[in-house]
Amino acid sequence: MNAVPLRVLSEEPAAAARFGRRLAGHGAELRAAAAATLQINVGKKCNQACRHCHVDAGPLRTELMPDAVFEASLDVLARHPQLQTLDITGGAPELHPRFREMVARARALQRKVIVRHNLTVQFEEGHGDLAEFFAANRCEVLSSLPHYTEDATDRQRGRGVYQKSIEALRRLNGAGYGRGGGLVLNLVSNPVGAFLPPHQADLERDTRTYLGDHHGVVFDHLFTITNMPIARFADWLRRSGRYDDYMDRLEAAFNAATLPGLMCRSLISVSWDGRLFDCDFNQMRELGLEPGAPATVFALELQDLEGRRVRTADHCLGCTAGAGSSCGGALT
Questions:
Q1: CB–CB of 90/97 below 8 Å?
Q2: Single pTM value for the model
């Protein structure tokens, strides 16, 4: 990415002070490249309520994408063939009543479909066949498993989640996932605490060995993601008196080499109510696209968005710390 004079855009300039300072030190600003991925958050309803969830999703949330936004989002996908990937997230996206229709219609458009799948939703009523559904539609499944051990996972996601997750992974393996035949199963791991993820390749190796030896589970890749100082995790940091220390840690670990690969440069994020954002994290901070850009999916034309300035705040330090963090794992 070319270095250009810094212009940080934020409705709250002080909120971007740390990240802006780091960008300024490298004479850089973030500008979007051509979008290749449409990421759609279909709602905040989830069967889990995890401690680290930046979406603040849970069983009591009622936000679900209405039909008009649903249709507009798929229309954008159909009209813009350069959007080669549809990335569906939530909440637990499978709990949206039209989730399977969205997958099927995107596949009919010959788009790659990634589903951010929490594994335990397979045990909710009416969802026991998800592994077979994913396989039939050749979805890429991206599943969160905070750690390969039971205690660490259950501390973050709730008692019994680990064992259900292992059984769900076995179902996915039984449907052909993770076995090298083109059905891709990737795991996502995030730290159980206020520290940076370990080296991605090392954790992938250790996780592969442990899950294989103890549970007979296989997968394709493991991605590490930094816990973002947003929503529940930010609340926990503040309650425990660790917020400033954690932000200091992220800032001290700033790595300029991560900037070209940040997901906000090649992704458009659509919220459940149709608003547009540079990334899923900005969405949760209610930090919309820069002034003058289309505000909703109903007005979305990709030519209006390429080259836009990406809006930033201090949570962006989570993506640029150490080896970096994105929806696809480490960046360097």
A1: no
A2: 0.91
